[in-house]
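Worked example 4.2. Below are the chains of a multi-component assembly; read each line carefully before continuing.
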Amino acid sequence: MSRKNKQISGGSAKGNPSLAIILGATRSHPLLSLGILVTVVGAVIASLLPPLVLADLIDRLTARRAVSFALVLAWFGLIALTGVLEAARESLLCIYGQTITHALRSGLCMKLTSLPAGTLTEMDPGALASRFVLDADTVEELFTSGIISMFADACQIISIFAVLFIRNRGLALLLLAVLPLIFLFTRHVQRRTLASQLDNRKALARVTNFVPETIHNIRTIHALGKERYMRRRYNSAILDSFRAIERTNFYDSIYSPVVLVTQAAVVAAVMLLAASGNAGIRSFFGMSVGTSVAVIAYISQIFSPIESIGMEIQTIQEAVAGVQRINEFLRLEERPAALMDGEAAAGHTAKDTKTDGESAGQTPQGADAVGEAAFSVPEESGYLTDKASHGTAIEFRDVSFGYKNGDSVLKNLSFSIPRGGHYTLIGRTGAGKSTIFKLLLGLYTPDSGQVLIFGENANLVPDSSRRALFGCVEQTFHPVPGTVLDQITLRDGRISESQAELAAETVGLAETIRSLPQGFQTECMEALFSHGQWQLLSIARAIASDPEILLLDEITANLDADTEKTVLTALGRASRGRTVLAISHRLYGNADTSAQASDGLQLVRSPL
Amino acid sequence: MNKTKHAASPLTPIAEPQKISSYFRAEWRSLAIVTVTGLIYNIGLIAGPWFEGQMAQCLENIFKGRAGFPDMARLVALYVTVIAAVQLARSLKRLYVRRFANATGRRMKEILYANLIHKSSAELRDADVGSVMTKAVSDVDACAEGMRKFTTEIFDTGVALAAYCVMLLFYDWRLALLCLIFPPVSYVIAGKMKSLVQRTGAAARESAGRLNAATLDRAGNAVTYRISGCEAGRDRDYEKHLRDYEKTSVRAEIWVSAMPPLYQVVSMASGLFILYFGSRNVLHTGWTAWNLAAFTTFLSCYTKLAVKSSHAAKLFNAVQKAQVSWKRIKGLMQPVQAEAAPVVQDPAELVVTGLADPRFGSVSFTAGPGQIIGVTGPVASGKSSFGRAFLCEEPYEGSITFAGAELKSMSPQVLSGIVGYLGHDTELMSDTIRSNVLMGDESVAADAPDIRSDCLTDDGTGLQQMLAAVCLDREVAEMPAVTETRVGTGGVLLSGGQQQRLALARTLAHRRPVLILDDPFSALDKETERTVFRNLREIARDSIVILISHRLYLFPETDQVIWMEDGRSVVQTHEQMLKEIPHYRELFALQEEGDTNEQKK
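Applying the procedure described above to all two chains together yields the following structure tokens:
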């Protein structure tokens, strides 16, 4: 395991992790990749053929020969083939795009599990979610509408050139002179358009914020009589957007007409040269009437990929930022894989093999099986078996700790709590109370000293054992999407429905829940419970797994006296037979003996 | 092209903003240009195929010695000129139809905002109205876009298709009728597919919604799952969502992206007739006698028609979407008058008689200019409702008169010249410090000579004095852009205390004869609070200040105190209050004690 570990951190720190994920997904679908290649190239070639058939047909007509129905059918057959190949290409690209997105999101999710808690808390969930949703989409676009489409367009240009070079060398050379100019013009217009689109987006961000802000501040606006002022500000904001759009519109309006006029000029030049009396020039542009019709068709075919390539360059440029953001996230330092259970460790193996190029871990059943297997034997570690014999539940031995970028929070803190004891840590804000919990839960490692849970290092407790060991009542309840039952179980398969109901029973919330329209299966909503009831639900969640240790974080802050009483009663029942450590800036329950734990922190025995 | 000039000119107000035709009428100039250039362009479109045919024919003639180089030169010159003229018309048409949409969107947004700004706070607090208003901006965009597409497609699809059809019929009506069978066939297939596209699209959107919720849950509750050891389970669940999303979106996207090339193939099936019967025409064995030019033109014309007609479906979608959006915002588009700035009234007496509310009972008192009335009481005793009564957001019971006139029967405009208000919520704008204090009013006067900032420059407005009065000048002077520093949405870039003082500076800059301050000092330390209070006294020396607070140490300096408790209110001086209300005395003593403690530290 440790050997693998090294490989992982080595693999994810270097190189381009999102590219590795995409390549892995591509390799695991060889047929799909082959199909894309075949249809991309096939569509390009097929689209070249109908004008050639047409040229032949017209030449026959010029020679007054009859046209066979087979030739007509061949022409249509080739058009149909082009259409079918294009449709197939689009379908395969869409499947491929979704495969990439899926692989990227799976990779991001696995990464989340392997991040240390410190990194998790520092991250803004909104930004994180947008990395999952938006940035993954951008990367997908980079591949489908960026690189692959660009390849297809380049193929088309090159093959038209090849045909023209054989059929009409003069035109090929003429185009070789004109196309770079058109390309430069295209890029110029696209860059200008993008610049004004960005201006517009900025102006729009202002406008978008304006309406909710006005609604929020309406009282001040009315009281101060600022209606006119606000309207003026709003109008100036939308005027900015109006002007930016006008600029975009200008370029939008001239681009395609300019290209089409150029196209007409090229056609004109070819016709003129072909008709020229000079035999040399004529042979250089030598063509029959049929070829002239085919040439007109090719000229119109060669200009549109130029425009597309410009757009694709833009897509790629824009997507680079998204790829960088994802790579930044994927390169974040990871915690030791030994702590992660089933899925994440399996994910790691998958990622490993992916970089090795064998399998992309995209076989869902396989991944499931590994996860399930690991999940069914979560508690093989010694924590729960020898804990009974250990008299001290929690022990801090000379612990010092400071966050990465800050002063030290704890200095040489020592205390211990016997098994079954009920204690409260009291101290001001900033004295390090929450930090103590984080160390206990193994989310952080102390700078020096030891944090012991039943005599073993707290940060060596594997994820899968944690819930059986700790129940943590957080200061604010974090609802999860799902039913009321899900709030208690956290959709954890190891907790049965009856265990969850028992937990609800213990905190005195079972009756309330049963009286809901669908009882425990009611979809959870904000309005279902009062503030105090949410707190009770939080306790039920903490004790559902019948943990040895109960951690309480400022649970009676923001509660009125009556509710506080209810919550304390529930806590009394919930903490029976458990070791309890609470943190608070004041004392609740009954104080008993107290001891100074460290500067500003007091450890008080407080039987509940 | 004087684009900027056009853009900067103010929009002419329109009479009936709730009628969609008004917007077309308001932009009649742009639309007139669009009509002329649109007709030129779309009729001119058939010139392309015609010339292509003529050139091919001319080439044949030259090869056969029936024509010479000058013939081709003339033809080619004409071709380029006509194409250039047609494309010029096209670019003007594009420009003006977009300008029409852009201006319409801007106009609609202005009207919408003007309507919003006059809605009462009670109306806006209704969640539905609020969210409709927030969504309305994107609805306006959808409307303008729909109107643009409609206008464009009238020409591009309607006129162009008609022109092509006429041209085809002219060359060979039998063959034309035969060819025109297939485009409708592809319409019918597209129509049949539409419900499938919508169904799979809806399924994909639902799945995307579920996936987004799961993403937010997984990312947002990551720590909760970590401490409960539930991450593995969540990852498996997330994988399920991913799989579902992949499946549904592939299903939805395939219909959207794979079908258009196939529709095109169906339309192009007519090519079979054109090539077969057309070549017979050329060989003079068909329905009509054609030359090669006619053959080429006919084929090229039909190909363009097939491409154009495949866009027609888009038109219907855009118009349908615009209609839905318009329905949502129509009710919000009422005519609005330009509003005048509030006229600040002269100081006068405020008389409150029997102002009643179940939470604080009934309150009566009289106050003159320069007086400060302290209002206090336990949590939820109705202090804030009392303060808000002066805003007349909802009709109050009893009477409040200023200079003898009843507040609730005043127009909002007159009222805003009398009552100034600062609530719990500082309601700062996401703008600069300067704009937040002055709010566009450059004439705020610095008329308290004793209060001056020694670290901010005097810019001729009362800005520096107001910031000095609330003890914010020093902090502002140290900010990167001084008074031009942006404070972020709702002032998030400032600390709570800074936000509160900035809002107070704004209130002082907009002095009114009656100032209601609801807990304006709660985030300040006592020393600052005392200084700010002293400055407030000085600057608002002609105003009546109603100071709502649950901190009492400034109350000895008030002229009257209103005590609210258990649905009753008492109005007395601070000294009497100490004697007669035991709870008040207790609170005051407790806070004084805390005060001395804090000073000891």
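Take a moment to check your reading of the output against the notes. Chain B is about 60% helix and 10% strand. Residues 211 and 241 of chain B are 6 Å apart (CA to CA).
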